[in-house]
Every structure is written in structure tokens, then in C-alpha cells.
Write a structure and sequence with these properties.
Shape: elongated
Helix content: 40-55%
Number of strands: 6
Number of helices: 3
Number of domains: 2
Oligomer: single chain
Largest sheet: 6 strands, mixed
């Protein structure tokens, strides 16, 4: 059970690292393009290109900052033990899917099983938080029955 949590946690960390690497690569590419851009007789075109590259760099810096926040959130999640109720770090098995309460990382596949990595602050995470096996909650007209919490 703890191995499952650790493996899902590792998949979330890999997801965030991929996002960080992609953002850093894009920042480096934009900075390289800015450095390679030489001033031509079309001064306005040069300035417009530089400004667009600066905006791209700023967007990617924002993504990098958001990814850093996700790493901080993941570092606060324990993969040890089993809670009686759904909380950050829990694997919640419902009649409508398996969820890992951690960060919003989308679909994770582990041992041919699909898990949805969701944030405890997401709409479904908020409904799920505090639920115990046997309890139900509904979201968007769909009823979820909590079958197990790991």
C-alpha cells in the first residue's frame, strides 16, 4: 500500500519535473533567440521581436514558478501510513475511479491501473476530503461511493 503511494508520488514528481524542464528549455530558447537577433534597418521589427521573446520568457518563468509551487506541495505530502478519512496523500478508491489526492497532474498509469492525481483544493478534492469508506458524495450530478482509502 505504501509502495503504491510512493510510486504515485514519484509519478507526480516526474510530471512536475517534466513541466519544469520544458519551461526552462523554452526560457533558454527565447533568450538564445533574443541574443541571436541582430538589429537590422527595420528597427520596429527588431523591437517587436525582442518584446515577443520577452513575453514568452515571462510566460515560461510563470510556469516555472507554478511548477516550483507544485514541488513544495508534493514535499508536504506524506506517503507513509493510512488515514481513516481522505486527506492529502490518500489514494481514494471509488465506484467511479481511483484518485490520488496530491496535485492536479491528470491521469497516472501504474501497473495497468489508472489513477487521477487531483488537488485537495479542486472541486472533487474538496468533496472527497474527509470522506471515509462507505460514504458517498456527489459532483456534477454524479454520485461517488468511497470504497476504500489507502
Amino acid at each position: 500500500m505504501n509502495d503504491l503511494k510512493k510510486q504515485l508520488h514519484a509519478l507526480c514528481i516526474a510530471y512536475v519535473n517534466d513541466r519544469m524542464n520544458a519551461a526552462q528549455f523554452a526560457i533558454n530558447e527565447a533568450q538564445q533567440a533574443t541574443n541571436d537577433d541582430t538589429k537590422s534597418s527595420a528597427g520596429d521589427k527588431y523591437e517587436t521581436g525582442r518584446e515577443m521573446m520577452q513575453q514568452e520568457t515571462n510566460r515560461n518563468l510563470t510556469q516555472l514558478n507554478e511548477a516550483n509551487k507544485l514541488i513544495v506541495a508534493l514535499n508536504q505530502i506524506s506517503t507513509a501510513g493510512q488515514a481513516g478519512a481522505a486527506e492529502a496523500g490518500s489514494v481514494v478508491i471509488t465506484n467511479n475511479g481511483k484518485f490520488y489526492l496530491s496535485i492536479s497532474a491528470g491521469t497516472l498509469t501504474l501497473h495497468n491501473e489508472t489513477y487521477f492525481a487531483i488537488s485537495p483544493g479542486s472541486p472533487i478534492g474538496l468533496k472527497m476530503k474527509g470522506c471515509r469508506p462507505g460514504e458517498e458524495f456527489s459532483l456534477n450530478g454524479k454520485v461517488y461511493k468511497v470504497e476504500d482509502i489507502l
